[in-house]
Amino acid sequence: MAIVGSLDRFEGLCKKTQALQCVWDYMKSAMQEGNEVRERITKLPLKSPQKLDLGNGIFVIEQAYMTKPYEEAFFESHQKYIDFQLVLAGKEIFATGEKGDFALVEPYNEAKDLIVYSPLEKECSSLVLHQGFLAILFPYDVHAGSLKVGKESERVSKSVIKVPVELVKHSL
């Protein structure tokens, strides 16, 4: 079950452990106007992702891209990492669903921590993520981001924080 909302709603969750505290500190820095982290990410050239190590097996992929039509969606899931996807600028549709709603295209690639899917139905559940929104995606969440809202593509600046599964104690 993906968890989605404005970043400030996740402060308590991220302050439960020292490892997640560093994720929170990074995300808060990335959202502060004028902060060097935010400036670096929002000025990235398109399709030139940067990788940053936060320690404890956690790393960040900072990126900028243009949104694309749903027909070009790349559906994936992971086993080793939970994705914390934070939108810094722009907006995108984020499609997601349960594994049973998808056909397997490529089995698990351990080196990439990646499973690739295609949807069984023409469309699946979707959310609009915009500046300041965080989506937390677990290993059972098949997802595709970078989809355009409306007819026009737009630039999205985003950080994807990859957190090892064992560092997150998920219970509701």
Q: Report the sheet-strand fraction.
A: over 45%
* General form: globular
Number of strands: 12
Largest sheet: 6 strands, antiparallel
What is the gyration radius calculated from CA atoms? 15 Å
The succession of helices and strands, N to C, reads EHHHEEEEEEEEEEE
Mean residue pLDDT: 93
* Largest sheet strand order: 1-10-5-12-3-2
Structural class: mainly beta
End-to-end Cα distance, whole Å, is 11 Å
- The percent range for helix content is 10-25%
- Work out the helix count: 3
Are there runs of 5+ residues with pLDDT below 50, and where?
none
Characterise the protein shown here:
With 172 residues, the protein is mainly β. It has helices spanning 11-14, 18-31, 36-42, and strands spanning 3-6, 50-55, 58-66, 75-77, 81-89, 91-98, 102-109, 114-119, 125-130, 133-137, 141-147, 155-164. Strand 2 (50-55) and strand 3 form a beta hairpin. 33% of the residues are buried. The model has no long low-confidence stretch (mean pLDDT 93).
